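Sample intake sheet
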Amino acid sequence: MKEISIGEFARRSRLSLKALRLYDERGVLVPSRVDHASGYRYYDTVQLEQARLVVMLRQLQLPLAAIKELLACDPADAAARIADYWRDAEAAHDARRELADYLVSRLRGKRPVMYEVATREMPERSLLCLKRNVDEQGRWAFGKEFIAIMRERPLPKIEGRAGAAFCIWWGLVDGDSDGPIEWCKPVPAAQAESLASQYPELSLRTEPAHLEAFVALPDAGDEAVHWHLAGESLQAWADEQEQEHEGERLALTPEDLGLRITYLASALGTEEPYRDMALPFAVAR
C-alpha cells in the first residue's frame, strides 16, 4: 500500500476535494490517515478502486447511505444489491413513463383509466385513528409510529379488508403540501369504547357503511407515481359514473370519507394484493 495526499487522490480518482470531504463526513470514503496537526487527509492507493466504485454508483443515483452499505458488503452481496436496485429503478422509470403518457393523453383531451377499477361494499366500522399534518420526510415516520402502537398493544383482529389498517389521505403530501393524513384501525363495535380508553393517543370515530371503488397497487416501482396514477384512475372512474348516473343523485366522495390506502398484512405471500387504493362513494337514499 502507498499513501498519497488528498490532492493526488482527487486527481487520480477524478473526484473533487469537496466530494472527498463530503464522503469522509458521511463515512463513505474515509482517509487512511489524518494529520492531527494540519488536518490534512491522506489515502491509500488501494482506496482508488473504492473511489471509482463510488463514482459509478453515484452515476446510478444511489444515495450515499446505500453506497456506504454496499462498500461494506462482500462483492457477491454487493452485486446482488445493485441488481435489485436497478430492477427497482427500471420499474420506477416505467411508472414515470406511464404518468407521462397519462399527462400527454389528458392534455390532448382524453382521460384514460390507467388501472382496472373494481367496487366493493364496506360495512359501518368503529375506528381508532391518529391524524396529523406531515411532510414527505415525516410520512414514513408517522406510519411507523402508528404501527408501533399496534404492535405494543395489539387490538382484536377483524378478518378481511374490512378489518385491515388503512391510511386516509385528506390532502396531498409532497414537497409542497403536508396532508393531513390519518391512520385508522377498525375495532369491534361492541369493544370500541373500552378499547379507546386504553389508547388515549388515538381518537375513536365511526365510519358509515359505503361502497368503494378500488385498484390494486403494484409492489415495485416509483410508489408516488403509482399512487398518483391510481388516484387519477379512481377519479376518472368516478367522473364516468357521475355522467352515467346523472339524475340519480349519486353522491361521490362525501366529506366524511377520503381517498385511502388499505394494508392487508395477511395478504403477504399470497396472490391477493397486499395493498390497494380506494375511493369511497355512496348512493344517496
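Comment: The chain has two domains: 3-71, 118-283. The chain is about 40% helix and 20% strand.
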